[in-house]
Design brief:
By secondary structure, the protein is α/β, with parallel strands linked by helices. 40% of the residues lie in helices and 18% in strands. It has an 11-stranded mixed sheet with strand order 2-1-5-4-3-12-11-13-8-6-7, sandwiched between helices. The chain has a two-stranded antiparallel ribbon with strand order 9-10. The protein is globular. The relative contact order is 0.15.
Length: 406
Amino acid sequence: MKKSGNIILGLGLIAAAVSLSLLYAGHKTILPVLGLRQVLRPVDDELVVGRSYTIKDEKGSLITRISRRVHVGDEIITAEGKHYRVQKVDGELAAARFLGMDRDLLAYNELFSKMELPAAAPVRNNRPVVIYHTHSDESYLPSDGSASIPFRGGIFQVGDSYTYSLANDGARVLHDKTPHDPHDDNAYYRSRRTAVQLLQKNPIAIFDVHRDGVDDPEFYRRIVSNEQVAQMRFVVGRQNPHMQANLDFAKRLMAYANKMHWPIAKDIFVAEGNYNQDLLPTAILIEAGTYTNRKEEAMRGIDLLADAVPVILGITGPASRPEAPEYEKPVTDPTARRPGVWSSLVWVIIITLIGGGIFVLISAGSYEKAKERLAHFFGRELADIWEIKAKKRDLERQEENGGKRG
């Protein structure tokens, strides 16, 4: 009876592991990856327009400003390659520690500084680039007359400009204008349904285009390639299994875009969140200027960004060599190593262990009985396995010694 009970327990653990692994694999069509901190915090961490966090370094010098909640552990990578991590948050003022220069970004800067493209690069990949807008009300006060226009925000026209420029540079583009209003904590859940539907088109990348809520228009305004534009910021969510791949994509894109049009990409903000970026390793959130910039500045800025996208995605540009170093391959190269694969595997293992533990606890009826069963299973059953292996080694030694024990 005990033996059969252990077999049932083992099969139950296996079934729980398989079920949870399948649930994890299918999360893309149901819910985003959620940690305990995400369950307890707002899904949408953006502030109302005009409010923003100021992040300074150890010497009190300004690093950046952003109109979303800042948490300890958030990171900033500047256009110059300086890497910071937030250590303390006091009200809407955050202090960050300098971690050094980001080696990946410096490597990409070096690579792209030497790379020359033909005048007319052939199209090598026809998978679509997808653009959508979680906050479909976002607008630009000087041009639109309001910072928010429900269901038809000025952000759609910025997306149109991005679409046109990408297509002009050789990409096939799908610009989805599904509204996801109101601008509340559930907007990302609503936009997730849109993004999941767009995944059926097998996109090469997904861009969720926003605008920031910093009140100072000069914070984003620059003269770039002889045009007055609003700079672009990339936001990467650090609570999803594709985080490392998303971040690598953002670094490559910032490095190459700034090589073409310095400094069109302002910085990369690694935030506590998901932003539906677990759906694809090449999913990224773009802040196209801020609400006090003119919409035309944001449109000109995102047009310049578009010049870099097809090359970074491997849609156009020189073909990579299979033996080339990893950092030289486009992010979509099938021979390239995928950052974050091991972290995804760890997520599956953790979910499986938790699910298996819950299964055993429910089947046993109490914590003490569950602990006893697990101790017996992993003690007795594994001991049997080792005993069999020991006997096998003894037989092998006997054969080597002519049948004598020794």
